[in-house]
Amino acid sequence: MTRIDTKPSGATSAVTVRGLVKHYGETRALDGVDLDVREGTVMGVLGPNGAGKTTLVRILSTLLAPDAGRATVVGYDVVRQPRQLRRVIGLTGQYASVDEKLPGWENLYLIGRLLDLSRKDARGRADELLERFSLTEAGKRPAGTYSGGMRRRLDLAASMIGRPAVLFLDEPTTGLDPRTRNEVWDEVKAMVGDGVTVLLTTQYMEEAEQLASELTVVDRGKVIANGGIEELKAKVGGRTLRIRPADPIHLRPLARALDGLGITGLAATVVDTERGSVLVPVLSDEQLTAVVAAVTARGITLSSLTTELPSLDEVFLSLTGHRASAPQDTVPTDTREEVAV
Ligand SMILES: Nc1ncnc2c1ncn2[C@@H]1O[C@H](COP(=O)(O)OP(=O)(O)O)[C@@H](O)[C@H]1O
Ligand SMILES: [Mg+2]
Prior knowledge:
Blueprint: E1 13-24, E2 27-38, E3 42-46, H1 53-60, E4 68-73, E5 76-77, H2 82-87, E6 89-92, H3 104-114, H4 119-132, H5 148-160, E7 166-170, H6 178-193, E8 197-202, H7 205-211, E9 214-219, E10 222-228, H8 229-235, E11 239-245, H9 251-259, E12 270-272, E13 277-282, H10 285-297, E14 302-308, H11 312-320, E15 337-339
Parallel strand pairs: 3-8, 3-9, 6-7, 7-8
Antiparallel strand pairs: 1-2, 1-4, 4-5, 9-10, 11-13, 11-14, 12-13, 14-15
């Protein structure tokens, strides 16, 4: 895809945020946030409900003015250059923003016209994007008749009309079922492949791991951790390997065997009799491989082998010593990686 109107070349940071503050009365929605999103990368902003994610996205897309601090997007200041800034961004809000009464195609065409495309270009772009997001047929029907996943895909298509250099996705899959969530992830990956820079907010560690290369964890308006995904996962204790023997009789012998292996740094196993599995916390790929090799060597038939990421709640507990400040959705189990055995 082509990019339009980006700032003078040489910039490596597409989004720069410094000391950003936003109050709503007594509530400090943003309490001095610093953030950098490098050009061509996906930054995940992970945090529970009320952390300040939407407030951040609204400020970065010029829908809301900050009380203090600075933010620029491809070099344009959110306060001083809102018009130029809006020309280089795309936004998909937490809630669907399309007109339900209008067909999908009309929605895209109208947005194109609003963005000053000629009739011909707006038509072409609507056709192209519907096809791209597998909505060509559906494009003739009112958006109100779409499934949740189709609506979200239409939203993504709408945010791409202006060929944005930077895309803001605010909880793009919250409320979607696991299969639809996977579809949306695939679309986002394809957009990233086109070179667009993405700032994505999410409540799901799983989603951050799927899409983002870097992560900023926010809680109560403050950044509580940031860095590469791997780095952060290591900080919070990595993954848990769940091994389910076909015959429950093998549960305890398997756990004992793994505890007796002496793999460097490997934590003790936990037996989950309710779900008939042995849980092994693994910190590294080497540990994971060694455990799987040991299980295989014993010749025990397994019915499943899965790795589970720490939940957002566990990440918070580990980083802050307290639980996330608001009740959490849990990560749907179906989206966990399954390894066939
Ligand atoms: N328009 C508003 N008026 C008053 N308080 C608000 C408003 N928008 C957000 N808040 C509060 O600011 C905090 C951050 O909200 P928000 O940015 O929506 O968080 P998130 O998107 O991470 O769930 C919350 O405590 C929320 O209740
Ligand atoms: Mg929000």
